[in-house]
Amino acid sequence: MFATTRSTPSLARIALAVLFIGAGTAHAQNASVPMPRPGLWQVKVTEDQVSDSYKECLDEATLKRALELQESMAKAMDCGLKSSKQGAGWVQTSSCKPGPNEPRQQSTRKITGDFNTSYRIEESASQKMADGKVIKATSKSEGKYLGACPADMEAGDRILANGQKINPFKMLQTAPAQ
Question: Measured over all CA atoms, what is the biggest interatomic distance in the chain, rounded to whole angstroms?
């Protein structure tokens, strides 16, 4: 969920895309965002006016593994994370260093929904480069619970808009925690 400084996605951006939108970033903080309900979710992601959607099958082990990966990445990128409950939602802020020679990235997420039937996450991120140029990115994610996962999907499976089925955990050669 971070702005990238190059035309191809950074490893951090790819790994964050693997994680369920926003799952767990606040769990180590004082205002925990609920974990999504296990089952089949329809997810629509819009980043800088480009939209994509997919269906994703989640179970508790997959959500736990996503949280572990996200916490590991936050530690590796020296992220300062803060979360607070605000009204019917949450606000998360982070400041992360994606690489040893890259400037820190700042991001703010506004999260609403019950994570039982739906959620919405709006994020803005920025990074001030050494030459003074500021790179900005925005994203919006919306999830809707569809029910139990179908028999032909296992935990972690995603069905992309084009019908292709992938499993990000398998792509990273990582299995969900048991």
Answer: 53
